[in-house]
Specification:
Blueprint: E1 2-5, H1 15-20, H2 24-36, E2 41-44, H3 54-68, E3 73-76, H4 80-89, E4 95-99, H5 103-116, E5 119-123, H6 134-151, E6 158-161, H7 173-187, E7 192-196, H8 207-221, E8 225-228, H9 233-245, H10 253-260
Parallel strand pairs: 1-2, 1-8, 2-3, 3-4, 4-5, 5-6, 6-7, 7-8
Helix pairs in contact: 2-3, 3-4, 4-5, 6-7, 7-8, 8-9
The protein binds (6S)-5,6,7,8-tetrahydrofolate.
Length: about 270
């Protein structure tokens, strides 16, 4: 299970001013903590500074993160200009977060992904917005996988995101995501799936509990990457336990090592 650390997102109350004021120490601390907790990518989102200021802000964020951690970033922006600028300063193979089937933006982002050799998150939405059924999201996902692959992005570099919405606003918002994950895994064994888990608990109390339960359910459906808060130790412990139970941890070696290192929280 590949963990994308979500904490450096400008929509978070503490992060927006840190980006605006170019608070290098804040960003370094958040990046290091997420890396130490097991993140494989650090998500970087500077979108709240506004479209014109975003390219420079995202570059600063990526450079500050990579000055302290030896990890690639997930470049979290719908703005092709910001992604293009950030790719220039990013070291290693970036994860572009994200591309959609919206015709106004698809071509620029697909070209950037193919030219830079980046990995890319494909959101299951297009010109008609976000489809309300799993079947319609799958249609968009299939179209994106085919087009990205034709544009030169390898199948293994594509992460389909079924789009997670709060279960508080529609009781089907959890199951719909699991259905898309299961179907993508069946149809495209090489394509990865990824989800912004924390969206599911928005507006509800004890969000960590819902995020934990949803992560386990999605892993059972076949999810192999997640945008989460890696500083939630119980969630990270559950991921290690779930990998063992799903047969993804031979002889439970990782589980046992984590227990010995006293990293498993019950
Ligand atoms: N898919 C993809 N990328 C994504 C998402 C997704 N990026 C953004 C988001 N969704 C994932 N990241 C977060 C980051 C923070 C929160 C949720 C998801 C979060 N924030 C608190 C809130 O909104 O209440 C704010 C807390 C604070 O202010 O500190 O929960 O789905 N590809």
């Amino acid at each position: 299970m590949l963990v994308v650390g979500e904490r450096l997102n400008s929509t978070r109350k503490s992060v927006a001013p840190a980006i605006k004021n170019r608070d290098t120490e804040f960003v370094k601390k958040e990046a290091s903590a997420q890396a130490e907790a097991g993140a494989a990518y650090i998500d970087c989102n500077a979108a709240t500074v506004g479209k014109d200021a975003e390219p420079e802000a995202l570059c600063w964020l990526v450079e500050t993160v990579q000055s302290v951690v030896d990890l690639p970033c997930a470049l979290d922006s719908p703005n092709a200009a910001a992604i293009e600028a950030a790719l220039q300063v990013h070291r290693g193979t970036a994860l572009i977060n994200s591309i959609t089937a919206e015709s106004s933006k698809y071509d620029d982002l697909a070209r950037l992904a193919a030219e830079s050799g980046s990995k890319v998150i494909a959101l299951a939405m297009g010109d008609d917005g976000i489809p309300s059924t799993a079947e319609d999201r799958l249609k968009v996902a299939r179209e994106l996988v085919a087009n990205l692959n034709r544009a030169g992005v390898a199948i293994e570099d594509i992460f389909v995101d079924p789009l997670v919405f709060p279960v508080s606003s529609d009781p089907e918002n959890g199951r719909r995501v699991m259905q898309v994950i299961e179907q993508i895994r069946e149809e495209y064994p090489g394509v990865h799936t990824i989800a912004g888990i924390s969206n599911v608990s928005h507006g509800l109390p004890k969000r960590f509990l819902l995020n934990q339960a949803f992560t386990v359910l999605c892993m059972g459906a076949g999810l192999d990457a997640a945008i989460i808060d890696p500083l939630d130790e119980r969630l990270m412990s559950l991921i290690i336990a779930t990998r063992a139970l799903l047969g993804q941890d031979e002889f439970c070696m990782d589980y046992i090592s984590a227990a010995r290192a006293d990293k498993l929280i019950v």
